[in-house]
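Write out this protein's structure.
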Amino acid sequence: MNVFVYGTLMNGHHNHKILTASLIKYLGETRVNRWLMYDLGTFPACVPANDAFSIAGEVYEVDNLDDMDYLESYPEFYNRVEIDTEFGTAWIYYVECASGKIIVDGKWKL
């Protein structure tokens, strides 16, 4: 299965080690449409949006989502849904609603 990550699970960020526990293969960077990213301080969150918004991230093939579900407090805080990417379908973690600073370019930076 594939997972699309856009925040602290990306390569070079502090939670990437959690993703690598179930990592099979890095598939590549991509951008997905109809998502809006918010800065929640030490991590981002995305919410479903209209066609005017997109977010950037990385897609990985993994053998399970257990450690990521735990990190993301799924389903208590984050939800997840499958989306289409250029690498096939992938799970994305998202919140139903968020407030705070919008990351207009859709790229998470610490």
